[in-house]
Amino acid sequence: MGFSLSTATQISLFASASLRSFQRTAVARPGTPDYDSRMGSTPFPYPREARRARSRTQRLVEQILATVRAMETGNASIGDLKIVARALEEMRIGFEMFAPYRGTRKVATFGSARTQENDAIFRTAERFAAAIADAGFMIITGAGGGIMEACQRDAGRARSFGVNIRLPFEQVANRVIHGDSKLISFNPFRPSATTRARCSCRASPSASTGATSGACGC
């Protein structure tokens, strides 16, 4: 075979030692000294689920960067790039605002800013918001007047989020949520609507059916 006896013996001993080491590692469990002494020196000391989540995060970040690079090398105008940059930054800020409340279920409500306090729909929105707040939910509105203010008034400032949009002549934040740390103002409408939908279990005020709950995003 071309090997000397001493070389063959060394290979055999090395293989036997490697097998024993593998067997000990295979039966070791997290939290035991034998497991920890080996896993502490490995390049991937994370559980499989954590590695999978980290890998998925990397893929999504790469996808975002690839889209940005495609816009840079394509025919996107300065105006196009400004819209994308602003929308992405505002959505990031919005998600960070919701992050401390990720464990709390939320309901997003949509309604007219022009609904008056003496309107029956206004009073229905107040009762709806009070009921879901009592059930442990938080309210997300567009932070304007009308139905939005009605919902936030009876849910209370502490259980309210405002996702506003900047318009030149209207849509000032209502007095309930104005100045609160849970208020954010977007420039375009789409990031505002996307953030409300992403971070809530969507529902509309209804006197008969109440909230429609589901998996909440933020």
SSE arrangement:
Layout: H1 5-27, H2 33-39, H3 48-73, H4 78-98, E1 106-108, H5 120-134, E2 138-141, H6 147-155, E3 160-165, E4 183-186, H7 189-198, E5 201-202
Parallel strand pairs: 1-2, 1-5, 2-3, 3-4
CATH architecture of the domain at 101-202: 3-Layer(aba) Sandwich
Percent of sequence in beta strands:
5-15%
Across the major sheet, the strand order is 4-3-2-1-5
CATH C-level category of the domain at 101-202: Alpha Beta
Distance between the termini: 66 Å
Describe this structure as you would to a colleague.
It is a single chain. By secondary structure, the chain is of the alpha/beta class. The chain has helices at about 5-25, 35-40, 50-75, 80-100, 120-135, 145-155, 190-200; strands at about 105-110, 140, 160-165, 185, 200. The protein has seven helices and five strands; from the N terminus they run H-H-H-H-E-H-E-H-E-E-H-E. Helix 6 links the parallel strand 2 (about 140) and strand 3. Helix 4 runs parallel beside helix 7 (about 190-200) and helix 5 runs parallel beside helix 6 (about 145-155).
